[in-house]
Specification:
The chain is mainly alpha-helical. The chain is built from one helix and no strands.
Length: 68
């Protein structure tokens, strides 16, 4: 009886270890996805916040110089 319990605990320990490894891989995958999303979406959005007003000012001043 005691041997059966030890065997089952060892099997559960092995499965728990495999589950932990899988969860860590998934966590790293989600972290990489978050970083990629920030670089691809949020950073250009922040840059546009600063570039668009400069672009519009330049465009409007160029139109005013031409007498329109």
């Amino acid at each position: 009886m005691e041997e059966e319990i030890k065997r089952r605990l060892d099997a559960q320990d092995e499965l728990l270890s495999k589950t932990y490894i899988s969860v860590e891989k998934t966590r790293k995958y989600f972290l990489a996805t978050l970083i990629i999303n920030l670089v691809v979406f949020v950073v250009p959005l922040v840059i546009l916040i600063f570039v668009l007003p400069w672009f519009f000012n330049t465009y409007i001043s160029a139109l005013n110089l031409n007498g329109i």
